[in-house]
Amino acid sequence: MSAHLTVVDHPLVQHKLTIMRDKKTSTGEFRQLLREISQLLAYEVTRELEMTTKVIQTPMQEMEAPTLAGKKLALISILRAGNGLLDGVLELIPSARVGFVGLYRDEETLQPVEYYFKVPEAMENRVVIAVDPMLATGNSSVAAVDMLKKAGATNIRFLCLLAAPEGIARMKEAHPDVPIVTASVDEKLNEKGYIVPGLGDAGDRMFGTK
Ligand code: URA
């Protein structure tokens, strides 16, 4: 992708996002909307995938038809909230390979610490889409991308629902080669590192843990 930041301003995305932000929206509705919106975002994040052609036989005649080039995509969910985005994206790209990155924040150093890492083989030959609904401080996202690069990935995109300017700046500084696709750039982070106006804790809202 060419742009470092793409904000998907499609009316359906923006309408669904407004319902998701509303604190009155139930867990079930939130999850359903996340699934729908993630497919619309996936459409955008895959817009510039490389294509090739193959010869097929339609019922009418032979034709040289467009098809995706290269190895299957790798979708990487940054646990746990990434799983909410992953489900919808997988519906659109069912043949994608899937990986998981688990990080927690060390309460003393405030740095992300890895607790789980499992990704598909041949990462260097795949388009890799890392998914996490909230790009907040950017600390865990940057750490996740570090890990993906260490595993060989060279063509990574970052897909999120909301981004804070602070997180975008952090990602751009650490990984200028990783384009970000999001539905919104919100105003700022609050003192606890939450995005405002935001939508609260994405994991809690999609899994109903609060
Ligand atoms: N993670 C969330 O779930 N929400 C935020 O606002 C920031 C990080």
Describe the protein.
The longest helix has 19 residues, at 27-45. Strand 4 (74-78), helix 3 (82-92) and strand 5 (97-105) form a beta-alpha-beta unit. Helix 1 runs antiparallel to helix 2 and helix 2 (27-45) packs across helix 3 (82-92). This protein has a seven-stranded mixed β-sheet, sandwiched between helices. It has a three-stranded parallel β-sheet with strand order 8-10-12. The protein has a two-stranded antiparallel sheet with strand order 2-3. It has a single domain (5-48, 72-207), classed as 3-Layer(aba) Sandwich (Rossmann fold). The chain is 33% helix and 28% strand. With 210 residues, it is an alpha/beta fold.
The total count of helices amounts to: 6
SS elements, strand count = 14
Which runs of at least 5 residues are low in confidence (pLDDT < 50)?
Answer: none
Overall pLDDT metric: 95
- In order across it, which strands form the biggest sheet? 1-11-9-7-4-5-6
Which structural class fits the helix and strand makeup? alpha/beta
| Relative helix content | 25-40%
Identify every distinct bound molecule in the structure, by name, code or SMILES: uracil
CATH topology: Rossmann fold
- One letter per element, helices H and strands E, the order comes to EHHEEEHEEEEHEEHEEEEH
> Termini, distance in Å?
37 Å
Largest sheet: 7 strands, mixed
Shape: globular
- Rg: 18 Å
Q: What proportion of the residues form beta strands (DSSP E)?
A: 25-35%
> How many discrete domains?
1
CATH class: Alpha Beta
CATH architecture: 3-Layer(aba) Sandwich
